[in-house]
Design brief:
Helix content is 82%, strand content 0%. Helix 7 runs antiparallel to helix 8. The chain is mostly helical and 256 residues long.
Length: 256
């Protein structure tokens, strides 16, 4: 039997295509609206950026509990004959307390998911940084009753710790302030009230260094936070491309 025209161009085929398009277009439109709703509700928020920055800070703080107590023991072993045993004992006690609090905060952070970090965990990490700042800030006090040369060596410990903390806490200003303020207050008060003029000058320089480190921390934190936002935009772009490709495959499948 010979037909004058092919089935592909017949009115029946055209009717079927029109029916499929009427069914497909609302479905595609619904999927597009759902995707737009996901994008709108998944915009990067300040809470998301702070959470990612906190995770980076916690990663940087992992070696800290393993350093403070061994450092204090090493210093005590090297200068045990030149330092006051009472002040050295208090300093070792401060190292133990700061190590325990920091370990507790890091443990609470790692046993929880990134979206389930409670206020107590954040406060524990902050308390660990406060205790660490007091520990390093006490270094000039430990050597304040010894010779000036040894006191000058101990006066360098807070400055070095403050500089390292500036990098470790990039992205979270509150955590850096929790570490820097007790460190600077303890060290500067000890140095400013010393009898030696050189130590008093170093005490004032410690305050100036703290202000400079705050400005540096602000600049470094901006770079870190911008990097987090850029990473989120890249991930969202990849997700949107994958979604559009899925819609295209769906259209092609219905149109075949």
């Amino acid at each position: 039997v010979h037909y004058p025209c092919s089935f592909a161009g017949s009115p029946i085929k055209r009717h079927l295509r029109l029916a499929e398009e009427k069914t497909l277009k609302p479905r595609i439109r619904e999927e597009q609206l759902a995707a737009d709703e996901v994008i709108d509700t998944d915009e990067v928020t300040a809470a998301f950026v702070r959470g990612r920055a906190l995770a980076a800070v916690v990663t940087n703080l992992v070696p800290t509990p393993l350093v403070m107590l061994p450092f204090a023991l090493l210093v005590g072993a090297l200068w045990r004959d030149d330092l006051s045993s009472t002040r050295l004992s208090w300093w070792l006690l401060a190292a133990v307390v700061s190590t325990v609090i920091m370990l507790l905060g890091l443990y609470r952070f790692h046993v929880r998911s990134a979206s389930d970090i409670d206020t107590l965990t954040r406060l524990t990490i902050g308390a660990g940084l406060v205790a660490g700042g007091l520990f390093f800030g006490m270094a000039p006090w430990v050597a304040s009753v010894t010779e000036v040369e040894l006191a000058l060596a101990f006066a360098m410990f807070p400055s070095i710790a403050a500089t390292m903390g500036c990098v470790a806490t990039a992205g979270r200003r509150a955590l850096y302030l929790a570490f820097l303020l007790p460190l600077t207050a303890t060290a500067s008060v000890t140095l400013i009230t010393a009898d030696d003029a050189l130590l008093r000058a170093i005490g004032y320089l410690a305050i100036f260094l703290a202000a400079t480190l705050l400005l540096m921390h602000h600049a470094v934190s901006r770079s870190v936070l911008d990097g987090i936002r850029l990473q989120w935009r890249s991930q969202r772009l990849l997700r949107d491309l994958a979604h559009e490709r899925g819609l295209r495959f769906t259209v092609e499948a219905y149109g075949a």
